[in-house]
């Protein structure tokens, strides 16, 4: 087994290689505006660090968000392209699940990432491997009652201390955590879903109202 994991659902552009036993190479850079520019060089970097070629990869793991439309689709399209080119399976893992796994908290807690527009993408967890609710996007004040008293991890939690007073690292997801979680689930016999994006809302870019299409006569 050699899994290539990647995620671009948060400001972190993160890539890792897992050989079935542990992560053997990883790279993470935080830059919310350069996902497309940074992802492929990061893949090249982790392959070089491991002394391997891309054609040695036996599977792809992609973070499925939730996340902003533009950043998220960079990672998912790259994962699908690698899967088609190499003829290997592509597995989807919720980005919030990767953060929860990396946090390694024993009791109930919340994962919240920055959704911009003064909102967070979030979900509640029973422990680091068990999600209790579907990912959602809300204003922090609107969910204060649901998350009251719970520890929280992620950039969204750190941004809004009034709603998440017990906020902890990690701030962003790491592909290393995604890879470890995916391998754990695969070894347990779980079937990982195909990577389908969790956008949760429309993209920021919209066609202007009263837009007129001009075609040549």
UniProtKB/TrEMBL annotation:
Catalytic class of the enzyme: transferase
Transmembrane segments annotated in the record for this chain: none
UniProt domain Gcp-like: residue ranges: 32-145
NCBIfam families in UniProt: T6A_YeaZ
Native source organism of the sequence: Streptomyces griseoincarnatus
Top-level taxonomic group: Bacteria
Enzyme Commission number(s) from the entry: 2.3.1.234
Keywords: Acyltransferase, Transferase
Record-level Gene Ontology MF annotations: tRNA N(6)-L-threonylcarbamoyladenine synthase activity
Protein name per the record: tRNA (Adenosine(37)-N6)-threonylcarbamoyltransferase complex dimerization subunit type 1 TsaB
InterPro entries the UniProt entry points to: ATPase_NBD, Gcp-like_dom, T6A_TsaB
Record Pfam families: TsaD
